[in-house]
Amino acid sequence: MEEELLLVDPGSGKVTAVAGQVLARSGSRTGPRPPSLAPEIQREQVEVATCPCTTLEELAGQIRQGRATASEQARRAGAEVAALATAPLPADPSLTGEPRYRRMAEEFGLTAQQQLTCGCHIHVEVTDPEEGVAVLDRIRPWLPPLVALSANSPYWQGCDSHYDSFRYQAWGRWPTAGPTELFGSAAAYREVVAAMLATGTILDEGMVYFDARLSRRYPTVEVRVADVCLEAADTVLLAALVRGLVETASRAWRAGQPADPVPVPVLRLAGWRASRSGITGTLLHPRTHVPAPAGAVLDDVVCHLAPVLADQGELAAVDTALARLRARGNGARAQRARHSVSGSLADTVRYAVERTLS
Length: 358
Fold this sequence. Notes:
It is built from 14 helices and eleven strands. It is an alpha+beta fold. It has a single domain, classed as Creatine Kinase, Chain A, domain 2 (2-Layer Sandwich). Keywords: ATP-binding, Ligase, Nucleotide-binding.
């Protein structure tokens, strides 16, 4: 798992460009032990990655260890880390000095220069690209509820965006972002990627920003739709749901069950609705693609995954974690609740710093 975290000033709550100092103190990403820290496009953020895990308990430990390590290194640089998917206070981000990011800024202008968002990317191992593409084809309609669950970016440039996940909207400015059509085979997937590269629009395969894709570096499906979660416990829940989706989709493929051919425009609407509403109001149901109460949709997500979750011994843990999240709300709700009391976005950021390490 990869979590992107904001670097913030402990007094003002504004983002601060100290990623270079944080990473210089943390050592190499390729070290043998977790967590590993890596740069992102802006100097006001860092990425924390776990090692591959096989149990939720192991993953929970690594996520908390990664956040704590990032916090320790940030404090040595005079900053704090906050698991916020967008910066609540006005920000003027500064690009990391890597040549690739500079090229992106030259090519994509404000889309790159203003891209200060923090996501959560979940990798799940697959046996080969054929299984991976079969999974991608079958999880498409089930991804928007993950946006709703993880939504943790209500504020943008000092204003309430009126979205629970404005990160999903801002990220959608990239030309390759969003849901995909059915691929049908690994060969067809590679043909699409090759055709995208042949346009000369994107710099490399790393800019294939599908909601879910085959990883370039690992034998995994990489699900990329989620905001970074405010609470570490919600990150673990998200991982359990994603692993359940991948295994459920793989079983359906092996059983010869076809993928739902829901059109991409409908999937885009489902993602928009999840980004707007979070886990309150309505979502588009993954099976019927018509509005349904968010609570009913979440219940049906768990029902869809229940056989796999039960086999993995995770059904009870998922039920408990989801009930807790629904009772207290997602990160967007927590941010707005704090702001409604204090009236201060700086205080909201300080609260997020506390919750990041809880």
